[in-house]
Design a protein that fits this description.
The complex is a heterotrimer of chains A (254), B (73) and C (225). Chain A has 254 residues and is mainly α. Chain A is 81% helix and 0% strand. Chain A is built from 9 helices and no strands. With 73 residues, chain B is mainly alpha-helical. In chain B, 85% of the residues lie in helices and 0% in strands. Chain B is built from 3 helices and no strands. Chain B has helices spanning 6-11, 16-61, 63-72. In chain B, helix 2 packs across helix 3 (63-72). Chain B is rod-shaped, with a radius of gyration of 26 Å. Chain C has one domain (2-224). Chain C has helices spanning 2-5, 9-22, 24-44, 49-72, 77-82, 84-90, 96-124, 132-156, 164-190, 196-224. Chain C is elongated. The mean pLDDT of chain C is 88. The chains are: A mainly alpha (254), B mainly alpha (73), C mainly alpha (225). Chains in contact: A-B, A-C. Chain A binds chain B through residues 38, 42, 46-51, 56-58, 60-61, 64-65, 68, 100, 103-104, 107, 110-111, 114-115, 118-119, 121-122, 220, 223-224, 227-228, 230-232, 234-235, 238, 243-244, 247-248, 250-251, and chain B through 1-3, 9, 12-16, 18-19, 21-23, 25-26, 29-30, 32-34, 36-38, 40-41, 44-45, 47-49, 51-52.
Chain lengths: 254, 73, 225
């Protein structure tokens, strides 16, 4: 009996309708929190944090680079887990989350790469250096692009979902291996490079805005994920009666 | 504040170009990530509304219209 | 009992080897590709032995990677078209076993010959003699991993009309660790360092790939039916 109740809870969570209606009231709050955190962190980091002893002011890019890289990587796992849940329990919502996570993840990986390259110019004297972290990020971008391209190649929506979920799972096993390999490859070729992010040794005055930015990026990620998924739900479920009622209500209100 | 005035904040001892271009591009991408789903959402609602209206007018003008509508879809 | 467990492995291995033997010209294609494209490098870069030798480990591995990728696309497609894939999917035994057989056959037909003719390219690139054995070993192990990973991509893109470029896009990022450790094996041998470590890591990759890839391939193949 108890198990039964748990399962209804689980499936209600997996219902697009429930998700759509529930997230409606979260959006303004989430948006406000994300905006406040991001603006605070950015202003704090760009104008008030002390400059780095070695890198001067160029280190301020860290406040965008590190949170974006964090979420790009965490987003890959979220995407893969969502795909696995969808594959195992056949939950439509899970696939929608996976699709949204792929788009957002690719964009965040792009931010991480771009800020990394721009940061590289004053630090290393070149926009592109085959640094372990940047190279792994580039490979992560390729993995995300593969996901996006694979899903567009299928005309059948169901197969697209399942194929991307499988690819995501294969990638999940591979991501740590790629990271370790690239790390090892780098020590082989360039033994001495400047460590860009050494968080534990960072001064608290520098670290606090970074923490705010990371939190802000997490909230932003949640917000973007919900927005993308809501749009996807409307598109996929447009034949469902609850969507039609919802739209009719909105039209009536106008 | 680490900088005496806005001028210094923009220049950042010569690193300003890098920092501000990184900020600009990142903020643009982040805003894009919010705007795109919102537009998609609005488009979906418009599409559904159009479909609903088609149905309504189909019912109003009689069965022949509805039949042709059904055969189209 | 063992027949149930191995169900389909040897049958599919034998069948695919036989099919490959029947059309031997198809079989030679990746090898010729390997040789021809490697010839482009001295023409495109420089014929000086020192420079070529420095490039050789990477070039040889990249060529092997491309040759393996080119041939993996057809791993399931002919079976898909003539309906025998359907038979494989509905057979009562574990789907992983026939898949393991097919991938092993692919490695025997493509990867192993590539590894065996690689000393030829090594000589053309004036690679020192000490690097020959590690090169053959690393290619033999590494191409097996490539076959497994590539088969996942081939299975995923199977129902698509134009899967070729897409397959490369999906699979290439996953190939990178193999490329890194494969060329590092040769490079360490050239530098006079111990190369058994990176070779062992390639072996570890093979163990992981052998255990997990058939599951992913099986799941992907079920999509196409």
């Amino acid at each position: 009996m108890k198990l039964n109740r748990q399962w209804t809870w689980f499936h209600r969570l997996g219902s697009p309708r429930w998700f759509y209606q529930k997230t409606q009231c979260w959006l303004p709050w989430l948006g406000a929190i994300a905006a406040i955190l991001l603006v605070t962190g950015l202003v704090w980091g760009l104008a008030f944090a002390p400059p780095d002893a070695r890198q001067g002011n160029s280190f301020r890019i860290i406040y965008l680079h590190v949170p974006a890289s964090f979420l790009a990587l965490a987003g890959y796992y979220l995407m893969a887990i969502a795909g696995a849940v969808g594959l195992i329990w056949r939950i439509k919502l899970s696939f929608m989350l996976m699709k949204s996570a792929a788009t957002i993840g690719a964009a965040l990986t792009f931010i991480a790469l771009f800020t990394g390259a721009v940061w590289g110019k004053p630090t290393w004297g070149a926009y592109w250096v085959w640094d372990a972290r940047i190279t792994s990020m580039l490979i992560l971008l390729f993995l995300y692009l593969g996901m996006l391209v694979l899903r567009h190649a299928f005309t059948n929506h169901e197969s697209a979902n399942k194929a991307s979920a499988i690819l995501g799972l294969v990638g999940t096993v591979n991501v740590p291996i790629i990271y370790k390999s690239v790390d090892w490859w780098q020590t082989l070729h360039q033994p001495a490079t400047i460590k860009l992010t050494s968080a534990p040794s960072m001064h608290p005055d520098m670290f606090a805005p970074l923490l705010v930015m990371i939190l802000g990026f997490y909230c932003f990620y949640a917000l973007a994920l919900i927005l993308f998924t809501r749009a996807e739900i409307l598109e996929r479920e447009r034949r469902a009666s609850w969507v039609r009622e919802l739209v009719a209500e909105k039209q009536g209100g106008l | 504040m680490q900088f005496d005035n806005v001028q210094q904040l923009l220049v950042m001892d010569g690193h300003g170009v890098y920092v501000w271009s990184a900020v600009f591009v990142s903020v643009c991408v982040l805003i894009g990530l919010i705007i795109r789903p919102l537009r998609q959402h609005r488009r979906a609602i418009k599409k559904i509304a159009r479909e609903l209206n088609l149905k309504k007018t189909g019912k109003l003008t009689g069965n022949s219209q509805e039949a042709s509508d059904a055969s189209n879809t | 009992m063992s027949a149930v467990l191995s169900g389909g492995f040897s049958a599919y291995l034998y069948r695919d080897l036989l099919l490959a033997y029947r059309c031997r010209s198809d079989l030679a294609r990746p090898l010729i590709f390997f040789l021809v494209v490697s010839t482009l490098v001295p023409l495109g870069v420089a014929p000086e032995p020192a420079r070529l030798a420095a490039l050789a480990p990477g070039i040889i591995w990249i060529m092997a990677l491309l040759a393996s990728l080119l041939s993996i696309e057809s791993l399931f497609s002919s079976d898909f078209q003539d309906g025998s894939l359907e038979q494989m999917l509905i057979a009562p035994n574990l789907l992983a076993m026939p898949i393991l057989g097919k991938v092993t056959a692919h490695w025997l037909v493509i990867g192993l010959p590539l590894a065996l003719i690689s000393p030829l390219i090594g000589i053309m690139f004036s690679l020192p003699a000490v690097a020959m054995v590690p090169m053959v070993l690393s290619l033999a192990l590494g191409t097996a991993v490539l076959s497994f990973i590539g088969a996942v991509g081939a299975a995923l893109t199977l129902p698509l009309r134009k899967g070729g470029v897409l397959l490369a896009l999906l699979v290439m990022p996953l190939y990178m660790p193999v490329l890194i450790f494969g060329s590092a094996t040769i490079q360490s041998a050239v530098d006079g360092l111990a190369w058994s470590g990176s070779l062992a890591i390639l072996g570890a990759f093979l163990a992981i790939a052998m255990a997990l890839c058939p599951l992913a391939i099986a799941a992907a193949l079920r999509l196409s039916s």
